[in-house]
Amino acid sequence: MRIEGAVALVTGANRGLGAAIAEALLASGATVYGAARDPGSIADDRIIPVRLDVTDGDQIAEAARRSRDVSIVVNNAGILRSSTSMGEGAIEAARAEMETNFFGSLRMARAFAPILRENGGGALVNVLSVLSFVSMPQGATYGASKSAAWSLTNALRIELRQQGTLVVAVHAGFIDTDMAAGVSGDKVSPESVAEQIVTAVASGAEEVLADATSQMVKASLSDDLTTLYPGLQEQWDAELASR
Q1: What pLDDT is recorded for position 115?
Q2: Any idea what the Cα angle at residue 159 is, between residues 100 and 74, rounded to 5°?
Q3: Which of 7, 61, 66, 170 has its CA 20 to 30 A from that of 229?
Q4: Nearest-CA neighbor of 154 among 112, 109, 121?
Q5: Are 33 and 57 in contact (CB under 8 A)?
Q6: pTM (two decimals)
Q7: SS3 per residue for the chain
Q8: What is the side-by-side strand order in the sheet with 72-75?
Q9: What is the per-residue pLDDT for 183?
């Protein structure tokens, strides 16, 4: 679809990847609503601020009422609790991550799909993770929420195709944002991921594998139990031994 002249709404647009996505859309000629729990945290005066907590159905309904001209919706808002499955507080962490990362995306899709239909189809972009594909104990509950959101994204693609809506799944490993601040490994820049998202929407691509890690893991899924998980087991065992 044509980005220039389009109207986009980006959740979690006040910082990190969300801010980079908003900037990339602006640079391509789109009008951008920037959604955040605190709209005052949207610093770029080119962005139209919208108060939106994706766990709040009333706020989503109000955002949809205010922005009926939207033709691109980017579900970027997400949280990470860094919880193992067996750790203290795992149930609470899982509920919080599912509420934002899965149910938030579902609520947004249900509220905005009719608007996208009215505006010619447009695009729905779900920012997921390489942990949609593979599980790690260090982020077990987060990975479960992103895996669920990936499954949802694939279902939405089928459901919304007849109305002409492009549904894009975005996967990346570590992105150089506050969420990955404590990680010392290789990171992809938020600007790179944002540019790939805009390119995907413009070209009609249904998936973005934004870095070498996500590309490798997706390619390994057919034999993941032998190619991926033995290394992850060694990493986890070494971490336990060092404690």
Answers
A1: 98
A2: 40
A3: 170
A4: 109
A5: no
A6: 0.94
A7: CCCCCCEEEEECCCCHHHHHHHHHHHHCCCEEEEEECCHHHCCCCCCEEEECCCCCHHHHHHHHHHCCCCCEEEECCCCCCCCCCCCCCHHHHHHHHHHHHHHHHHHHHHHHHHHHHHCCCCEEEEECCHHHCCCCHHHHHHHHHHHHHHHHHHHHHHHHHHHCCEEEEEECCCECCHHHCCCCCCCECHHHHHHHHHHHHHHCCCEEECCHHHHHHHHCHHHHHHHCHHHHHHHHHHHHHHC
A8: 48-51, 31-36, 7-11, 72-75, 123-127, 166-171, 207-209
A9: 65
Q: Which residue among the candidates 142, 145, 147, 210 is catalytic per the annotation?
A: 142
Task: Look at the block and give the residue holding tokens 């709404």.
Answer: 9
Tokens matching residue 130? 């390489």
Least confident of 24-33, 77-86, 158-167, 176-185: 176-185
Structure-block tokens of residue 112: 């905005």
Q: Does residue 142 carry a catalytic annotation?
A: yes
pLDDT digits (tens, 9 = 90+) for 143-183: 999 999 999 999 999 999 999 999 999 999 999 977 766 66
